[in-house]
Structure formats: structure tokens, C-alpha cells
Amino acid sequence: MIEERRVRRSERRGEALCFQLEASAKRAGADFMLLASSDGLLVACSDEHREASEEVAARLAALDLDPSSSGELWSFGREVVACAFEHDGESFILGASGSRPSSQSELSETLRGVVRILS
């Protein structure tokens, strides 16, 4: 029997993405995680850091990351780590911010969950 890891679930895509990002941020020790369009529009974020997430999303979009790249930038005195990816012909950016940078493996694990929800 497979044990269910998810504590909170939702049939609504936006809410499910927020739950995924909240759980991933907690596991990674990040202050917040976000999903943005390649244009810098916030799609979902992990919790009460919506204003900070919107600004980071816009700044990440300005880096013009391609889906095979990863980038870092400083914002609000915090480290921000991000990766760009494509899904169903649309480009997205997944980012994490906090006092300790998230690793690429943590972002990759979160990315799998995000893609599952978007599918």
C-alpha cells in the first residue's frame, strides 16, 4: 500500500499549485516559492508573501531565462534561485527565495509536482 504524502489537496488548479509550492518551500527551508509566466505574471505562490512574489516574478522574467537555464539574483536581501521550463507550449519560471538557497534538486522535485498539476 502506498502512503499518501499530500496533506492538503484541491481539484482547483490554482489552489493545488499554491499547496504544492507551500509544501515545497517548507521542505526546502525557503521563505517562499513562486510560479510565474515567462512574462513575469505571478501564477501561484506559497503563502502570505504575495507582494514579494510578484516583484520577484517580474525581476526573474527580466533575466529572459530559457528553459535549459537556471539563474540567481538578489532581491530584498534574499537569495533567489530559479529555473525556466516549458509546458504545453507555454513558458514558466519556478523560483524560490530565502536565507538559504534552494538546491537544483529541490527545484527539480517541485517542478515535477507543478507539471503534474498543470497537466
Tell me briefly what this model is.
The chain has 119 residues and is an alpha+beta fold. The protein contains three helices and five strands. The chain has a single domain (13-118), classed as Dynein light chain 2a, cytoplasmic (Beta-Lactamase, 2-Layer Sandwich), CATH 3.30.450.
Structure description:
The protein has a five-stranded antiparallel sheet. 37% of the residues lie in helices and 29% in strands. It has a single domain, classed as Beta-Lactamase (2-Layer Sandwich). It has 119 residues and is of the alpha+beta class. Helix 1 (13-28) packs antiparallel against helix 3 (104-118).
Low-confidence segments: none
Mean pLDDT: 82
Counted beta strands: 5
Counting structural domains, the number is 1
Shape: globular
CATH 2nd-level architecture:
2-Layer Sandwich
Sheet-strand content, in percent, reads 25-35%
Secondary structure elements and their pairing?
Elements: H1 13-28, E1 32-37, E2 42-45, H2 50-62, E3 70-75, E4 78-87, E5 90-98, H3 104-118
Antiparallel strand pairs: 1-2, 1-5, 3-4, 4-5
Helix pairs in contact: 1-3
Which keywords apply here?
37% helix, 119 residues, alpha+beta, Beta-Lactamase
